[in-house]
Amino acid sequence: AKRFREEAEAAIALDSKHIQSRLFLISYYAGAPGIAGGDKKKAEQIVGEVASIDAAWGHLARARMVLELEPASGKQDGAQLAALYQKALGAAKTPDVRLEALTSLVNLYLSAAAQNFELAEQYARAAMSIDPHRSNPYTGLPIAFAARGKSAELDATLAETEKAVPDNLAP
User: Fold this and answer.
1) 61 in Cβ contact with 23 (< 8 Å)
2) Which of 30, 59, 133, 155 could lock 68 by a disulfide, CB 3.0 to 4.6 Å apart?
3) pTM exceeding 0.85
4) Please, is 164 exposed, middle or buried when counting C-beta atoms within 10 Å of its C-beta (0-12, 13-18, 19+)?
5) CB 96: neighbour CB atoms within 10 A?
6) How big is the CA angle at 129 (ends 128 and 132), to the nearest 5 degrees?
7) pLDDT tens-place string over residues 32-88
């Protein structure tokens, strides 16, 4: 854990705006017990740093901290995460950040905390329109179809997935 933290801090020292390293540090500081270096105040500080670099990533960082502190288990947690992901989607300036927010929404709406297969499908399709060669949306869409008994759509999506992302047959 110490080496992980040191590597993330070294990446930030090389690139002061490196968001991914900060996201890893949020997970580390928010999720680790105090005896292993966890520090919720430090995690909160890093969330602020991310938000100052990019507003959309700031919302995603806040959602990460919420998940690290207490994994989403109820409707209230799901609503809070959905609001953060929606804010990130609205603030996103690049396709990659929009894709990250959409993928987070898909995963949230497939989870027990905010289960809504129709919304999962809607966001998965939106993510596919941004980059049809990424596997993430194709993973959520079949789950949404299978859960609702949409066999024809499921089969068509699996065939489409095999063509769009032939090197990843995860769904």
Assistant:
1) yes
2) 30
3) yes
4) middle
5) 12
6) 50
7) 888 888 899 999 999 999 999 999 999 999 999 999 887 656 666 889 999 999 999
